[in-house]
Amino acid sequence: MNFDAYARTGVDLVNARLDDLDDLRALFTEDHSWMSDEVVERDVAIFRRAQKRLRDVFEYGTSGRDAQAVTELNALLEAFPVQPRISGHDSSDWHMHVTSRGASVSAEYLAGAAWGLSVWLCEYGSARFGVCADERCGNVYLDTSSNCCRRFCSERCATRSHVAAHRARKRAAVGEQVTVAPQPTAGADSLSPVS
Length: 195
Description:
Blueprint: H1 3-15, H2 21-27, H3 33-38, H4 41-62, H5 66-79, E1 85-87, E2 95-97, H6 105-124, E3 129-131, E4 140-142, H7 155-179
Antiparallel strand pairs: 1-2, 3-4
Helix pairs in contact: 1-4, 1-6, 4-5, 4-6, 5-6
């Protein structure tokens, strides 16, 4: 089983827009394309609730609240239990599924996401769960950096944030120069020639 891929489905879910069934269908990548055809309207509410709970896991991890992250993941594992089974169409296509045959799309997807994030937490720690430092973004990510120093969900957000900080520093420096500019001394007007 590719636990990283399952963990990334959790990231994808938290970062997804889920206003309606079409948004939910857009969540499913080519690895999960079959889900797009089988998902139903009632799955939207289930995915929204799970999305909020998974965001909590990332926020707990980012803020160093490991016990709360573990508690929430354990609750998700209980709500969406993993029941592994081998699936495929012929002997060259065998692969693992995380739920029993006939499970709903939400049960299959969310069991995989909770399982993947749980394995990730056990392997790397909850400090590797991140929330983008760009205040305009809010996306979550898994920190795969070698020294656990990632702060942004993407290069785009990192660049945007660094440019905004640079511009703010530049504006502040210009503002300081204006406020410290020399002021005319008192009595300067009295230097005009007297007739």
